[in-house]
């Protein structure tokens, strides 16, 4: 498939959400960790500010995690991969050309950069980029072989509802592949993260994000298999998590 040009025109096969309706709820039940002040409007405005400088600030320091996510997704040779929160598309060149990648993001300014990267690098594996809310995906059930979300879960106002939605569009036998920072449980780092957490609305992510969000979600779905949970460089700051849907 040819590389997409304008992210607003990169429709998904089951329709496309707009930046306006992306803030709407899903009607799903509330989850215990969803009391955090982040909301889609704040996240979108934070990433509109980050977009021009995002690559400069985050390309290098978070590269190892993107590589691990891509390496795991690349095992699904010839498969269909959904990249949720694709941002400026820093991970896109790391995917195997045999894959069919669809990237979605709430932020149009971030997606425009991903579209530019896709075009410039001739990334033919990228089949589409679209504005879409991670917890309200416009895809049919069991559509993807893998869902990847590098550095996204800690940004989402409704992480559990988003995970449920990713599970819905994942094929049986497929996997959810995540990398993100998990907050320290105690000590000075935990205190700093808690302090920073109070500013998460401005930052656009939750530095104090607890493992319990994932742990509790997994515990409530015993059919799922946690196949990997591994600390990554730099300094074990980030965690790779792989979850298989049987
Ligand atoms: C820290 S960036 C990660 C971008 C990219 N995956 C990377 O590795 O650089 C988080 C991205 O998630 C997007 N995002 C935040 N909330 C979202 C939501 N509800 N639905 C879709 N994308 C969202 C942001 O716009 C941003 O581009």
Task: Give a structural overview.
The chain has 8 helices and 7 strands, in the order αααββαββαβαααββ. By secondary structure, the chain is α/β, with parallel strands linked by helices. It has one domain: Vaccinia Virus protein VP39 (Rossmann fold, 3-Layer(aba) Sandwich). A 7-stranded mixed sheet has the order 3-2-1-4-5-7-6. The longest helix is centred in the middle third of the chain and has 14 residues. 43% of the residues are buried. S-adenosylmethionine binds next to helix 1 and strand 2.
Task: Lay out the secondary structure.
Elements: H1 40-50, H2 54-58, H3 63-73, E1 80-84, E2 100-105, H4 108-121, E3 126-131, E4 144-150, H5 159-169, E5 170-181, H6 187-197, H7 200-203, H8 211-219, E6 225-232, E7 238-244
Parallel strand pairs: 1-2, 1-4, 2-3, 4-5
Antiparallel strand pairs: 5-7, 6-7
This protein binds S-adenosylmethionine.
The site of S-adenosylmethionine has 23 residues, from helix 1 and strand 2.
